[in-house]
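Reviewer 2 asked us to include a model.

Predict the structure of this chain.
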Amino acid sequence: MELIIDRVSKQYKNKIAVDRICLQLQKGVHGLLGANGAGKTTLMRMVCGILKPTGGTITLDGLDVSSEEYRARIGYLPQDFGYYPDFTGMDFLLYMAALKGLTRADAKRKAGELLELVSLQDAAKKKVKTYSGGMKQRLGIAQALLNEPDLLVLDEPTAGLDPKERVRFRNLIAGLGKDNIVLLSTHIVSDIEHIEDSEILMMKSGTLIYHDKWDGTKEDLEAFYLEQFEEADQEKEEQNA
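Predicted model (structure tokens):
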């Protein structure tokens, strides 16, 4: 299983949001770090087929991002995910399953399995509007998994969560990364730092400035992260000198 992002760019009039990104990702958790405006969400929306690249290609096991076969193999949790507040957790998943083409029987079975996976089985019959922020995010993960995707794309999934919920969420993501390609965008370094065998991707101003497996032996990840950004700034200054 391999996601290949080959020289992908996205330009809006005079602004280059993503500049010739190249990546080859296999099973595991891949944490995409960067400040707001770095191009993370634009890249992820292109990976999901929502935005069309200005240049370059994106394929999953040879399937082009524009194909139905590609889209059938991805699950996506956007940063601002819309919920139906008067639906129960179970009703919401059944509704999303219908949109994804699952039969009623398969939808009910899968929804039950996923509610248990994300520890929401006891809240299955409660309305989504009564859920905490963390519960809503876990429900968002469940809907993204309904079609048993090979590629799971999560955009700022822990934004607004308290530390306890972030730890719960991190453990869930680590488990999913054993069988899937998980691409997780975040500006919270600890979201990815403690996931074993994770890979770190760092974006700045639309470019990829770092990509490597994080083994935790180098130093504190946040300090390393800031160091990479300082080096990128220095290189840019030298090039412009």
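The beta strands are 3-12, 15-25, 28-33, 55-60, 63-64, 74-77, 151-155, 181-186, 199-204, 207-213. The mean pLDDT is 86. We have added this to the supplementary material.
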